[in-house]
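Could you please consider the sequence and fold appended to this message?
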Amino acid sequence: METAFDGVKVLDLSRLLPGPFCSMLLADFGADVIKVEDPHGGDYIRWWPPLLGKNSGFHVVLNRNKRSLTLNLKKPEGKEIFLQLAAKADVVLEGFRPGVMDRLGLGYAALKAINPRLIYCAITGYGTNGPRAQRAGHDINYLALNGVLSHSGPKGPPTLPGVQIADLGGGALYAAFSIATALFARERLAAGQYVDLAMADGALTWNCLRWGQYVADDTIPGTGDGFLNLGFACYNLYQTRDNRYMSLGALEPQFWKLFCDTVGHPEWNQPSYFEPGPHQDELRQQVADLFREKNLDEWMRVFAPIDCCCEPVLTLDEVMHDEQVRQRNMVVNLIHESWGAYRQLGIAPKLSLTPGSITRHAPELGEHTAEILTGIGLDGKIQAQLKADGVI
């Protein structure tokens, strides 16, 4: 079946999470992603425990559908090979600090000179300009500096989300969108372009609702102060008798009324349920006392036939066995010749004409080096010398 990115060649020099998740999305929809790794260890995330086979479980998920090429870009021969590949590539993706690729002689200007149609995407922490451009950072720092943490969690100290919002939402997803946008624009303009993508910038835009609230009422958002931020009883998390949790999201009047009627408290259904104020603390405490009367499975049976946005907080193991998740093919059972059976994350977007697919396991370090170099005309003798010289 035809793939969405059939014929698109991507050279991915990124490591860890943001870049690899971006290139995984492209690879899932047919792009030929070559993961360019240093011969001495490769992507650091390969070795982070726990391991699945000889590789990290993180690597197994993030680097499926890709080929691995080991290449020392600090060696002249390594640079030459990379230039040969870049001359025929559609996309170069990297996640180094600004200026690293330029110092190697492999920055956008150098690559554009040999391939004007090339799309070059640089994912950085803070972008290529500004006072923080060369500053190190991680997801927690980007979220801290861009306001997301300041209003995350219940009243009290900021709460760190369980997933990496800046890395994935601010970086990887924006990068994949930007690359797809640039590929689309290239069809009209016949030219590639440079994508300067800062994870901090991307994370900032995730404040969109709180930003809109602030510019409207001039009140600085804080923890536990909003109807979507654990400030209202109708949209909150509640502990059950067995120390599990239920999520209640009955924002709309019809859902809140149905919830109140279902639990036998129609008196809670007052207009003030969706108004800020100290009464929210009292109402939240009453709802909390209610939920502590039953175990999670009991509440699940109560709300299974009731459509009022009240659902259990599932563990990842429970999610993997959830019928909705399975029917959406979001858990894929695979078998690797050396790892054995394992469960891979499915592909979220369901395209009717050009669906994504998982066709390769995550590669071993340098697994496809010979294949790729042979493809650009380097025979076995040359490759043996390159290996001896530490180039591959």
In short: The chain has 16 helices and 13 strands.
